[in-house]
Specification:
Number of helices of chain B: 4
Largest interface: A-B, 31 and 42 residues
CATH topology of chain A: Immunoglobulin-like
Order of helices and strands of chain B: HHHHEEEEEEEEE
Number of strands of chain B: 9
Helix content of chain B: 25-40%
Strand order of the largest sheet of chain A: 4-3-6-7
Distance between the termini of chain B: 13 Å
Oligomer: heterodimer
Helix content of chain A: under 10%
Number of domains of chain A: 1
Radius of gyration of chain B: 18 Å
Strand content of chain B: 35-45%
CATH class of the largest domain in chain B: Mainly Beta
């Protein structure tokens, strides 16, 4: 599994000023640090703990996560599409990994 | 530990035959101590949901209105419980929902996620998938920019825990 592959989905046609849903999915194991393998070793915690959403230059949404988020985290939130700008989502995990992707929002 | 699990399996079988619900309870009771292993005990200290809310919000009153949690009544797999939080609270320039916090009462750490929003979101709402260790309540607490708290609670039944127990 590739860790940190991101898919972002926005409606194909967006009217200016419209509030649209945004969906994002990232591949990540999200290990809790509580799980043990069969031989009794604890699998170390490895999870995304910080998510930032930027619309243009503004940070519009921020998530502070714990290990209690499911593997391959899915999020969905709203965006007020009032300008043509890229929407960028940045994920950071507890081992220093940074994964990001952006989509262009072009309201008409 | 090995032996305990074997015994557990045997009694579980017996239990399920006589009373399914009691069997499930017994299984859960067996799964929990393994979460609180000594090596992890310090880092994974279980805190009750009331303590968490008290620590995060002081004694402030949470209005149980304007918030809706959409989650399954029965989650087959506790590792993936889809939760959607929506609200009809305004997202205006000076009065908006600035944060949503999500809790699962039965988890070793009840605090699951915190989400900060801005007026640029246009609408207060968020969906995510969380892990739940056992059957418990899922809570959401919304804080507005004016400092008011709104919340909702929904009970979710979990048949298989999702925290590696």
């Amino acid at each position: 599994m590739v860790i940190g592959r991101i898919k972002i989905r926005v409606p194909s046609v967006i009217k200016k000023g419209e509030v649209v849903p945004v969906m994002a999915l990232v591949t990540h194991p999200m290990e809790t640090g509580l799980r043990k393998t069969k031989d009794g070793k604890v699998v170390p915690a490895y999870f995304i703990n910080d998510v930032d959403v930027f619309y243009g230059n503004d940070r519009i949404t921020h998530c502070d996560w714990t290990y209690a988020i499911s593997a391959n985290p899915f999020i969905s939130f709203y965006l007020k599409a009032d300008k043509a700008a890229p929407l960028k989502i940045v994920y950071k995990d507890n081992k220093g990994g940074v994964y990001q992707q952006s989509v262009q929002i072009n309201p008409r | 530990m090995e032996r305990e699990e074997k015994e557990l399996a045997l009694t579980r079988r017996a239990f399920i035959k006589s009373a399914g619900a009691a069997g499930a309870m017994f299984l859960m009771a067996g799964a929990l101590p393994s979460l609180a292993r000594p090596a992890l005990a310090a880092a994974r200290q279980t805190e009750s949901i009331n303590d968490v809310l008290k620590r995060q919000y002081g004694g402030r009153k949470i209005n149980m209105s304007h918030v809706n949690i959409n989650a399954p009544i029965i989650a087959e797999n506790g590792a993936v419980v889809p939760v959607t939080i929506s609200s009809d609270l305004p997202m205006g320039k000076d009065d908006y929902v600035k944060s949503i916090k999500v809790y699962a009462d039965g988890n070793p750490e009840p605090y699951v996620a915190g989400i900060s929003l801005t007026p640029a979101n246009g609408k207060a709402g968020f969906a995510l998938r969380i892990k739940m260790a056992k059957t418990s309540n899922v809570r959401a607490v919304l804080e507005t920019s004016k400092g008011k708290l709104y919340g909702a609670v929904k009970s979710v039944k979990v048949t298989i825990g999702g925290c590696g127990g």
